[in-house]
Design goal:
This protein is an alpha/beta fold and about 425 residues long. Helix content is about 45%, strand content about 5%. The N and C termini lie far apart (about 65 Å).
């Protein structure tokens, strides 16, 4: 059996060999986020090493660590990096979350020491590990596998089962909402290089058939207009009315409602039932978090966000509006929505306002709900949502929930429905 010191030497040798074979491309341009200089960890945050990239397909917060953004070790205080990592995770660890680690870009000049890695792992107590549902290591190398063997004695079997190696970026699409990921350009270039090498050494691939058109009964992944036209003109989509009605009756006082995930296969099965036009009875699942996840999943899979693409840039500008005027500005933004989007948004936000009114029991204040729902209500048409962009989205969403009656009160539409 190889000793730990020998494994550490082997890891160092392997990393050096990988550098020689595949020199790292320097990151292009500035990092993905541009935090305010007043940020308490601006010295670390400005590098873009850690990003919060919305949610995965099942409502779990996505947190990304990019090695290629690590500056040389002599330019980075690794203790501060650990503190910043904890500072970021502390905002989300009460809900289920996943980590995506982009390994490309780690080199001998910028890698943290193995001692630092051990201290970091030990620093994260049960509250961090319990709600971490998956750890995706993208572009793993022999170095990663050797380091994993070094840490095996420290890592529980349960935690070890959360690790998934991902060889190509495309594979992430099977696990999460890839479009929301913040992927450094250098990582994308590296992935293209790996793909090209793979194609050069493999036989021609069979072309995939074109995607099937949606079913007439389809509920997930189609527009609100599509659902309305095929459901007898019903204003509020069936998925929303059923989940909201059930949660209003059974889940308003459930602690951490909307923070927890549910079994992935179960969510897929329920989505399939809805898409086939078959009945769904949430009573049979005996888990209040199932309809909560279904509601978030429905919103996240809309081709255009409920609050529309146009609202995204308007929300980003909220940081330039004085605090005392932000409610009025959000009211103006919402009143500019098309009628159908406005009615559905009013229905949902009315319900979320109800949830926030029970925050003494459920621990879900308007601010907490905004962290969960913000990125499911609005996102950009082309780019992913960066950590910097999340703040104004969450601020606006909190206002929509907390000041629901002010924001939505003065505009009434025909056929309006409330929960």
């Amino acid at each position: 059996m190889t000793s730990v010191p020998d494994l550490e030497k082997l890891a160092e040798i392997e990393l050096q060999r990988e550098e020689d074979v595949d020199p790292v491309t320097a990151p292009d341009g500035p990092p993905c986020s541009s935090p305010d200089p007043s940020h308490p960890f601006y010295d670390i945050a400005r590098h873009g090493i850690i990003q919060v990239s919305g949610d995965d397909k099942y409502g779990r917060k996505l947190i990304v660590f990019s090695s290629v953004c690590l500056p040389p070790s002599h330019q980075l205080d690794h203790l501060r990096l650990l503190q910043y990592l904890k500072f970021t995770l502390d905002q989300y660890v009460e809900m289920d979350y996943i980590l995506v680690y982009f390994h490309y870009g780690l080199r001998s000049t910028n890698k943290p020491s193995l001692k630092w890695l051990r201290e970091t792992y030990n620093e994260f107590d049960r509250k961090y590990k319990k709600n971490l549902k998956a750890l995706y290591v993208v572009h793993p190398t022999n170095f990663i596998r050797i380091v994993w063997n070094i840490f095996k004695p420290l890592i529980s079997h349960k935690f070890g089962k959360k690790l998934t190696y991902v060889n190509y970026l495309d594979e992430l699409r099977d696990h999460l909402n890839y479009e929301q990921l913040v992927v450094p350009p250098a990582v994308i270039k590296h992935d293209e290089k790996l793909r090209a090498a793979q194609k050069a050494g493999s036989s021609p691939t069979v072309k995939n058939p074109p995607p099937r058109p949606p079913l007439p009964t389809q509920q997930f992944g189609v527009s609100l207009q599509y659902i309305r036209e095929r459901n007898g003109g019903a204003i509020i989509p069936l998925v929303m009315t059923q989940t909201v009605t059930y949660l209003k009756e059974k889940g308003l006082r459930t602690e951490g409602i909307f923070r927890r995930s549910a079994r992935v296969q179960l969510i897929k099965d329920i989505q399939k039932l809805y898409n086939l036009g078959k009945p769904v009875n949430f009573e049979q699942y005996s888990d209040i978090h199932v309809p909560a996840v279904i509601l978030k999943t429905f919103l996240r899979e809309l081709p255009e966000p409920l609050l529309t693409f146009r609202v995204y840039s308007q929300m980003q500008d909220i940081m330039n509006v004085e605090s005392s005027l932000r409610v009025t500005r959000c009211k103006q933004i919402i009143e500019g929505l098309p009628d159908h989007d406005f009615i559905v948004a009013k229905y949902l936000l009315c319900f979320l306002h109800m949830v926030s009114q029970e925050s003494i029991s459920n621990k879900m204040s308007a601010s907490n709900l905004a962290c969960v729902f913000g990125v499911n209500l609005v996102w950009p048409q082309l780019d992913s949502v960066s950590l910097t962009a999340l703040m104004p989205i969450n601020i606006c969403t909190e206002i929509l929930i907390q000041h629901f009656h002010t924001v939505f009160g003065s505009r009434c539409c025909t056929a309006e429905v409330l929960p």
